[in-house]
Specification:
- It contains five helices and nine strands.
- The chain has 192 residues and is of the alpha+beta class.
- Strand 3 and strand 4 form a beta hairpin.
- Helix 4 packs across helix 5.
């Protein structure tokens, strides 16, 4: 059995059932929000990479036989496997720290529809999602502070090309360069 990754201290894995399944691999989710595949024959283990969606959530796409794909949203999968909802009314998953890329079981919680509404209002306040002119002179543009915080995080990683970031957020590569240099949105900090 071989692995292409190291496990974190305290990391626990649980089997994740795909809707359609595969003949060759079994999938597991960890309490840290990571997804791994285990080959049924060789038993080799491999981390499945997740991508960042425009809305800030992580998503992994699994190819299954027949050429179709199935999406796994780590925050939802971790909550389903590691957290028990208090009641049937607790059907929404939130990120306690408002960071949609932090999918550890300690950062997730099941909430009711009403609790989710309050959470979304608080998250909007934290990341400046309102469309009203901002106190620092930013009005109703394509980018919000929250989106710029995500862009700055992506730029700091250096793994995604600026052209791809620009395309994902519907802006020009020039705008991404200006954000990187601090010419635009200088006061916004990268999302944690």
């Amino acid at each position: 059995m071989s692995k292409n990754f190291k496990e974190f201290p305290g990391e626990e894995w649980k089997k994740y059932e795909l809707k359609k399944g595969t003949n060759s691999k079994v999938y597991h989710i960890s309490n840290f929000g990571r997804i791994k595949s285990v080959d049924r024959n060789s038993k080799s283990e491999m981390i499945i990479k997740s991508s960042l969606l425009k809305v800030g959530f992580m998503k992994a796409t699994i190819r299954i036989k027949g050429g179709t794909c199935e999406a796994i949203y780590p925050h939802r999968a971790v909550a389903e496997l590691f957290l028990e909802p208090k009641s049937e009314l607790h059907s929404n998953v939130i990120h306690r720290d408002f960071n949609r890329t932090n999918n550890t079981s300690k950062n997730l919680a099941w909430v009711t529809d009403e609790e989710r509404k309050v959470y979304l209002k608080n998250r909007a306040i934290k990341y400046g999602y309102d469309k009203k002119p901002h106190k620092k002179g930013v009005g109703n543009y394509k980018l919000s502070e929250a989106k710029v915080a995500i862009i700055k995080k992506e730029l700091s990683k250096g793994k995604t090309r600026k052209k791809m970031i620009a395309k994902r957020f519907g802006v020009t590569a020039t705008q991404i360069n200006r954000i990187e240099k601090g010419e635009n949105w200088a006061w916004v900090k990268p999302i944690h």
